[in-house]
Design goal:
The chain is an alpha/beta fold. It is built from 4 helices and 3 strands, in the order H-E-H-E-H-H-E. A 3-stranded parallel β-sheet has the order 1-2-3, sandwiched between helices.
Length: 154
Amino acid sequence: MRAAEIKSAALIHFLWTKTKSNSEYDQRQVQPRKSTARKKGHIIVTSSVAGTRSVPGNAVYAGTKHFVRAMLDSFRAESVMEGTHIRTTLIYPGAIKTELLNTIAPSETKKMVEEFYRNTALESQVIAEAVLYAVSQPDNVDISDLVVRPSMES
C-alpha cells in the first residue's frame, strides 16, 4: 500500500488488524507469565524483514512490523528492570515458502514476487532451526534479533 493510496479509515482498519493480535498476545500471554514465581523463560516472535528496513510502497506494512520490534524491545527492557531472566528473540524471515503469497491481490507485482519465491525462497524448516538456535543458548545469552533470508535476497 503506497502512502498516496491511504485513506484514513482504511489505514486505521489495516493497522488495527496487523497489530491487534500482537497486542492481545502481550496482554493475555506475556504479562501473566512474567509474573510467575519461576521468572524465567523465552518469548519468541516472528515478524518480517520489513521490520528492519523501510521500502517505498510498503510503509504501512513495514510500520506494523516496526511496532512488533518496539513491543519486544520494551518486553526485554522490562525483564532487565524486574531482574527476571526472560529472554526475547525476534525473528525476521525473508522469503520463506509459506501461504503469504495467497494474501497478495492479483497484480504484476504479485507475479514478480511469485517468480522470486519460486526461484529463491527458503523452506519453512529454516525458521524452526532459527528458533532452536535461539532457545539452545546458555541462560545468560539472549539472541534478540535474528534475520533469516535467502542468500540471494537483498
